[in-house]
Amino acid sequence: MSVYTSVTPEQLDEFLAHFRQIGEARDLQGISQGVENTNYFLTTDRGEYILTLFERVPEQDLPFFLNLMAFLANDGLPVPRPVPDDEGSFLRRLAGKTAAIVTKLPGRTIYYPGVEHCAEVGRVLGRMHRAGQRFPDSRDNPRGPGWWQDTAAALEGDLSPDEWRLLQDELTYQYHNRRVDLPRGVIHADLFHDNALFEGNELTGVIDFYYACSDVLAFDLAIVANDWCIHPDGTLNPYRTRALLKNYNAERPLTSVEEALWPVMLRGAALRFWLSRLWDYHHPRDGELTSTKDPDTFRAILEARRDLPQNAWVGWPKAAE
């Protein structure tokens, strides 16, 4: 969520003329976090919203994201609700880009999640996965194993010998151990703690659905664990991990095969984000307000996951009973 495209007051007024239900603009502030889209806090005389201009997302994928958010919001989940224009469309052009408005949810980001926060995100993620299995549309994961291979090949000249060896070894491991015949459905695919909002210990918002896709559900859970449940050195905090898994399991019980492949999922999730951060670090984009995240953070997480025993799941959910 960086600012790559500036919006003038005149452009904004012309755009909002097609959204009469939300009134006239009072303020527009750029949001610097994230790396994919241009995002603004939009305040009108009738409320607060998020305005997104899509920079790299294929336009044909946008209806999937917005329809998914509307579907989940209608199911009672704490996700932003897309705002239709006067003709009933969620998408319009603004400053040369396709743009959308969604409701701004209450709460704030928790930068140092505790056990209660991890329990809550596990509960909501389990509910979201159950609901998402009823969503009628699907979308392949554009950052799945095929993307891992292609991105690794493109990065070869940018990496140190140690980075290259680690990357090739993990790609080989994932090729031989990752399975696609696990429970699947719609996943968020980017539910880091800065994509969630809390009021106290209550999760009031899950935001930024623009990586959402159809994939292995346990992979989504592993993405969450790798961000919400870690020590500064990248190792997993057992208390937060137990809380996450126990509450997720209460909403959507995992199969014995998912439990057995939990270390593979954790390693794959770490690899995916190490690769994306390596790419953004070595091939940055210009932006008015941008943030590039340190790839070494996920290298450390990947190395820590490679040290996990094969029975890493055993005891985690039940230990919190």
From TrEMBL:
CDD domains: HomoserineK_II. SUPFAM superfamilies: Protein kinase-like (PK-like). Its EC number is 2.7.1.39. GO terms for molecular function: ATP binding; homoserine kinase activity. It comes from the Bacteria. It holds the Pfam family APH. It catalyses: L-homoserine + ATP = O-phospho-L-homoserine + ADP + H(+). It is an enzyme of class 2 (transferase). Keywords: Amino-acid biosynthesis, ATP-binding, Kinase, Nucleotide-binding, Threonine biosynthesis, Transferase. GO terms for biological process: threonine biosynthetic process. The keyword Nucleotide-binding applies. Residues 28-253 form the Aminoglycoside phosphotransferase domain. Pathway: Amino-acid biosynthesis; L-threonine biosynthesis; L-threonine from L-aspartate: step 4/5. The keyword ATP-binding applies. Belongs to the pseudomonas-type ThrB family. This is Homoserine kinase.
